């Protein structure tokens, strides 16, 4: 957060603000001059400008936190020690994974990255025994997707307490599509419906998306607002 104090501004600050305003006005004019990109067969893929994708919100992803039993990080040269319950992954891979997370709300879709860890390239059957690398898991969901119905705060109860003891990744936002009074979720062929109590780990056919955010309430409001706005705009 940046706190602003009242008073006179230095001359160079005023000039910088004027330059920023001129650049912003110039970019706005460029966007107005660029024709829109229209996809008649699927209107939701259309864009305001044909040469860019407009971002409406950037949601702060959740931070990975370790439990109280973790006392240190494994050395960079021996990540296998992280299998011990009191030792976390090496610091370099933890920082890289955290830096790779993002959640973008675009004009017509939601894009997010839930990265994981994997063995880096090496000489042992193509993999390294001593280095880890980031594996990106990027998902793009357009707002007209039939599974983009329910966006809700699915944060576990007593999240702060459980995070202190067992660790956590922040608050959870769940996107799915339910029917039969919420008792079933939609899935992929050949299992097109799944009981709501069945997790995705037990049923790969289940279609749902999990987002780990810093503030689930504001994230749900932003995603829902942009989804509804995009659907109304495409129907015009």
Structure description:
The chain has 236 residues and is an alpha+beta fold. Helix content is 26%, strand content 28%. The chain is built from four helices and 14 strands. Strands 1-4-5-8 form a four-stranded antiparallel sheet, covered by helices on one side. A three-stranded antiparallel sheet has the order 9-10-14, covered by helices on one side. A three-stranded antiparallel sheet has the order 11-12-13, with no helix packed on it. The longest helix is centred in the N-terminal third of the chain and has 23 residues, at 11-33. The model is unreliable at 1-9 (pLDDT under 50).
Short structural description:
By secondary structure, the protein is an alpha+beta fold.
* Sheet with the most strands, sense and barrel status: 4 strands, antiparallel
Overall outline:
globular
Give the spatial strand order of the biggest sheet: 1-4-5-8
Task: List segments where confidence is low: pLDDT < 50 over at least 5 consecutive residues.
Answer: 1-9
Strand content: 25-35%
Helical content band: 25-40%
Q: What would the average pLDDT be, to the nearest integer?
A: 87
Return the structural class: alpha+beta
Structure summary, number of beta strands: 14
* Spatial separation of the terminal alpha carbons: 39 Å
Number of helices: 4
Gyration radius over CA: 22 Å
The helix/strand order is HEEEHEEEEEEHEEEEEH
């Amino acid at each position: 957060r940046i706190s602003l104090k009242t008073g006179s501004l230095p001359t160079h600050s005023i000039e910088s603000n004027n330059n920023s305003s001129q650049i912003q006005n110039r970019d706005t004019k460029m966007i107005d001059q660029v024709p829109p990109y229209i996809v008649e067969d699927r209107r939701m893929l259309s864009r305001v400008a044909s040469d860019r994708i407009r971002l409406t919100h950037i949601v702060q992803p959740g931070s990975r936190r370790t439990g109280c039993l973790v006392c240190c990080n494994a050395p960079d040269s021996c990540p296998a020690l992280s299998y011990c319950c009191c030792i976390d992954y090496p610091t370099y891979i933890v920082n890289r994974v955290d830096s790779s997370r993002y959640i973008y709300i675009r004009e017509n879709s939601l894009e997010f990255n839930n990265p994981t860890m994997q063995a880096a390239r090496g000489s042992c059957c193509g993999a390294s025994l001593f280095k880890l690398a980031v594996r990106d898991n990027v998902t793009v969901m357009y707002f007209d997707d039939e599974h983009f119905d329910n966006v809700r705060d699915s944060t576990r109860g007593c999240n702060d307490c459980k995070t202190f003891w067992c660790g956590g990744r922040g608050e959870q936002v769940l996107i799915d599509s339910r029917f039969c009074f919420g008792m079933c979720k939609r899935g992929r062929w050949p299992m097109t419906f799944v009981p709501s109590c069945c997790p995705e780990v037990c049923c790969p056919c289940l279609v749902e998306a999990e987002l780990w955010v810093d503030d689930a309430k504001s994230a749900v409001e932003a995603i829902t607002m942009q989804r509804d706005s995009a659907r109304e705009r495409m129907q015009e």
